[in-house]
Amino acid sequence: MDPVPALEEPLKNTLGAATAKVMAEHLGLHTVGDLLHHYPRRYEERGQLTHLADLPMDEHVTVVAQVADARLHTFASAKAPRGKGQRLEVTITDGSGRLQLVFFGHGVHKPHKDLLPGTRALFAGKVSVFNRRLQLAHPAYELLRGEEVTETVDSWAGALIPMYPATAKLESWKIAKAVQTVLLSAQEAVDPLPDSLREGRGLATLPEALLKIHRPHTKADIESARDRLKWDEAFVLQVALARRRHADAQLPAVARRPAPEGLLTTFDARLPFTLTDGQRKVSKEIFDDLATEHPMHRLLQGEVGSGKTMVALRAMLAVVDAGGQAAMLAPTEVLAQQHHRSVTEMMGELAEGGMLGGAEHATKVVLLTGSMGAAGRRQALLDLVTGEAGIVIGTHALIEDKVQFHDLGLVVVDEQHRFGVEQRDALRGKGKQPPHLLVMTATPIPRTVAMTVFGDLETSVLDQLPAGRSPIASHVVPAADKPHFLARTWERVREEVENGHQAYVVCPRIGDEEDDPKKPGRKSPEDEAEKRPPLAVLAVADQLAKGPLQGLKVEVLHGRMHPDDKDAVMRRFAAGETHVLVATTVIEVGVNVPNATAMVIMDADRFGVSQLHQLRGRVGRGSAAGLCLLVTEMPEASAARQRLNAVAATLDGFELSRIDLEQRREGDVLGQAQSGARTSLRMLAVIDDEEIIAEARQEAAAVVAADPDLKSLPGLRTALDALLDEEREQYLDKG
């Protein structure tokens, strides 16, 4: 049996089962190689202190600071009724700010002895707010001086202390010690970069970079290591994408050219408005692709309301004209029904093929969702297999085995980030030859992210809004600081309704969830500092209907309702029968009610920047101005408030997507937002490293063109296999 390569050695063999288990469960690290690629987030200089003023809420942080004072309080509680409860409050400082640490009960004795004023230490814990002040409850700590800690200081021989992304179960300094244990194995790391590329760009070898990133002696060491490791990430990812583009370019497809004077020409002639220049330009790019004999792979990104659906519909009509069928895949039933309604309305009698009163060039537009009745479903399936229906709009139901097409020529995927590889390939597999693919997203994506995440797709951008769209005013409502602002919010909603308009209220949660097994039954005093659960649709709707919005017609909409009920609620809202719709983010994409002018987003800090921008795009869709109010209880200085201020300050989705990226971890860029999931971007900052990504894309294209199977680059093949574990493969294929 061959010995296991050093970097594939399971961590339990080197660190012991208990530590390995915590690393696997909380950080997703399983092998020596995983740990070596878990890089420090930053470095502390022994003589310097971090900025307590910049601490992020709700994150596990490690800080170096000095104890300013420590006080022991006694109090009475259920567990200690005679005033024997103990609470130790320690104030630490770093020159930029102060932070309170609290310890309770029996946990006070050791810190009371250790943390004397003047003591310097590393502290690690989760930042929470208590009495409107930032605090760490029961932080772990490691002293940085005194006789008993000489070995601690020795274990950080350099002047730079690496600070690792850590968790409550595993502090930064424990990770540092584990890295120290396996660091020798870095010598055996196989280099994925071709020698010519590495030498041509003067980059360090991989073993050298790993050594320098974990144990730098100087800041120059850190820079040199980062330069090298960024190249690894950018290059390996771009090679994966280049191989996909190469494979796709080998596939055959049927060229689809619209018939002159056919369905598309008739449709265009009937349009009551002129297309924007952007819509014309993007349509031309799509029609040129459709006319070629290998499959189009195009990403269409456009601001909320920039008219993407119109562009997609014209592409579908062109394919129907050319004798093929087009399928549009939507992520939710609400959205599929909405698309079906708007497409049939836009087409009018052109959507009544085979029916009395249908136009000469008409085709049939069918809807297919999981919750349809048996008879309607049978008819839809029959229309698809005979070719009677030129256009089908549906949800995942389109992908089932029973669904067969006469001649599928184009697949349009709406809000692509919600679909995985199997779903897309299953749908593409229903064509006699691979159909053309158009992917749409309303989340604007900066150029480098498009190159990184959707590198296998050509990109078209719609950045002009159609005429007649109204501006949206956005404001942050600080509910905790200024409760009267919240009262005014509901008055504003009433005013909109009195003026004949409607409003949305969005909440993060439904409110009929089962009791969460992770929630402890009893809360200790330090748990009280944790945030309350997010506001829920059912509770908020009830409070509004009985309170500030009494007398208005308030309805709820959320993902767990029966599809018929959802559709009925949406129809009543669209018809203006409902004044206020209290909903979850099911309304985030595609819902189009021009008469809805106001949106109140509760607990807005619990949503991402792009999601807030998406939600806001549901108002201001008619001729009346839109209003979006972002309600939050977060303190003025918090990062969450700054994020909301940024959203309120601009309507430019591309600007917001940059802000979003700068504030989030880079890992989220590749879709792995779940904590602990492995991400291939640990070092590369998609916004800052634009040049590296663009150069890596060129280098990767050249390497793949010369050697598609990478036969001459075994190190690169190994790195690709590691990158394209299942999650990764799936994500790349979502593009």
Distance between the termini: 40 Å
Mean pLDDT: 82
Using the alpha-carbon principal axes, give the shape.
globular
What percent of residues adopt helix (DSSP H or I)? 25-40%
DSSP E strands, number: 21
Name the poorly predicted regions.
147-158, 514-530, 665-679, 726-735
Q: What composes the largest sheet?
A: 7 strands, parallel
Helix-strand category? alpha/beta
Oligomer: single chain
Which range does the strand content fall in? 15-25%
List the total number of helices: 25
Question: Cα-atom Rg, whole angstroms?
Answer: 29 Å
Strand order of the largest sheet: 11-12-10-13-14-9-15
Record the SSE blueprint:
Elements: H1 11-15, H2 17-27, H3 32-36, E1 42-45, E2 60-75, E3 85-93, E4 98-104, H4 109-114, E5 120-130, E6 133-137, E7 140-143, H5 150-155, E8 160-163, H6 172-182, H7 195-200, H8 206-214, H9 219-249, H10 263-270, H11 277-290, E9 297-302, H12 308-321, E10 325-329, H13 333-347, E11 364-368, H14 374-386, E12 389-394, E13 408-414, H15 421-428, E14 436-441, H16 447-453, E15 458-462, E16 472-478, H17 483-498, E17 502-506, H18 537-546, E18 554-557, H19 563-574, E19 580-583, E20 596-601, H20 609-616, E21 626-632, H21 639-649, H22 653-663, H23 690-706, H24 714-723, H25 726-734
Parallel strand pairs: 4-6, 9-14, 9-15, 10-12, 10-13, 11-12, 13-14, 16-21, 17-19, 17-20, 18-19, 20-21
Antiparallel strand pairs: 1-8, 2-3, 2-5, 3-4, 5-6, 5-7
Helix pairs in contact: 8-9, 9-23, 9-24, 10-12, 11-12, 16-23
